[in-house]
Amino acid sequence: MQGIVPVILSGGSGTRLWPLSRELEPKQLLPLVTDRTLLQDTLLRTQALAADRLLPPIVVCTEAHRFLVAGQCREIGVQPRAIVLEPAGRNTAPAVAVAALLAGAEGDSDRGREAAPTEANPILLVLPADHVILDTGAFVAAVEVAAEAATAGKLVTFGVVPDRHETGYGYVLKGEARGGWSPVERFVEKPDLATAQKYLASGRYLWNSGMFLFTARAYLEELERFAPEMLAKCRAAVLAADHDADFMRLGRDFLECSGASIDYAVMEKTRNAAVVPLDAGWSDVGSWSALHAVLDKDGDGNVLRGDVIVEACTNSYVAASGRLVAVVGLDGVIVVETPDAVLVMAGEESQRVKQVVDALKAAGRSDDLL
């Protein structure tokens, strides 16, 4: 069986979950859904893969989060192959290129062979650290299907089966099914409402989850084809990296990488893109309303956290970190209290939290509130 290396991307800032998520302690490092953090849940989810093919993970994060990441890994008994520290974020394509290089894909001198998985060319399972998946069994089954496609040289994205017309996600148009996976006909940007309704009705479109699976060499070969300068800078950054205990600090060449997502750099250009449907209770927890949606609720549709009293409230998320919070007679609201800030908003406005964060930066209040 071919080995699978989980590649956990933990570089996000999670500004839409302010004031709880902050630059120095973003959402992936917080226990938002279970007693564990989102990063820990993501790592443990991969441990459900077959033990005889699971290899130690590679975690990519920022310098500022290094000790939190290392400590959270130790808490759950996971020893990463490497905790890679980016000198600055450059989006997902360079981060995964570094992981592919570390995984040993270029240790095999026979570069002319097909990109089949081997010990020196493992399968990479690329996962953002801040996603929620409620059904681990369905997730594992989808990974196994994707691994079959990767063995055939495909670069696989996981397409979430939509349960509503959603304008906040990109979509994947799937082709004719070939077993459990389909070739990708095209990627489409976030649609307007009318277009999203058409996509849902057609049954041929899936949400683009931002999770991927492919062999290390297949990814590097496509990146060399479509973004050779980026790959060259990543190679130089790996060669110049410093190693310090659990950490690997990339060389400064990484700063010269163009910032591009895997979708833009590779998936939208390659002829080998495939998609595996995923119906596993997925959420990217991209807003307070999204977090409310995935959590267990009381009989009135409320999610309550901390020292909270509600009267005649419905469909709301109310969380207190240090003080009593009381909410009366409201529907569909978000109330989040922290020691230094309180957020109150209508649930349907939850995507606008980023504007509050931008206003704080513009006012020069980033040191104490972000």
Folded structure, characterized:
The chain is 29% helix and 25% strand. The chain is an alpha/beta fold and 370 residues long. The strands form four sheets. It has a five-stranded mixed beta barrel. Helix 2 links the parallel strand 2 (58-62) and strand 3. Helix 3 crosses helix 6 and helix 6 (216-226) crosses helix 7 (228-239).
Backbone shape: globular
Give the count of helical stretches.
11
Count every beta strand, where a strand is a DSSP E run of 2 or more residues. 19
Strand content: 25-35%
SSE succession: EHEHEHEEHEEEHEHHEEHEEHEEEEEEHH
**pLDDT < 50 runs, ≥5 residues:** 107-115
Largest sheet: 5 strands, mixed, barrel
Q: What is the CA-based Rg, rounded?
A: 21 Å
Spatial gap, N to C terminus = 46 Å
Residue-averaged pLDDT: 92
Please estimate the helix content: 25-40%
Structural class: alpha/beta
Main sheet: which strands, in order across? 6-9-7-8-12
Strand and helix layout:
Elements: E1 4-9, H1 38-46, E2 58-62, H2 66-75, E3 82-86, H3 92-102, E4 123-128, E5 132-133, H4 136-151, E6 155-160, E7 171-174, E8 182-188, H5 193-202, E9 205-215, H6 216-226, H7 228-239, E10 242-244, E11 247-249, H8 262-267, E12 273-278, E13 282-283, H9 288-294, E14 303-305, E15 308-311, E16 317-320, E17 325-328, E18 333-338, E19 341-346, H10 353-362, H11 366-369
Parallel strand pairs: 1-2, 1-4, 2-3, 3-11, 6-12, 14-16, 15-17, 16-18
Antiparallel strand pairs: 4-9, 5-13, 6-9, 7-8, 7-9, 8-12, 10-11, 18-19
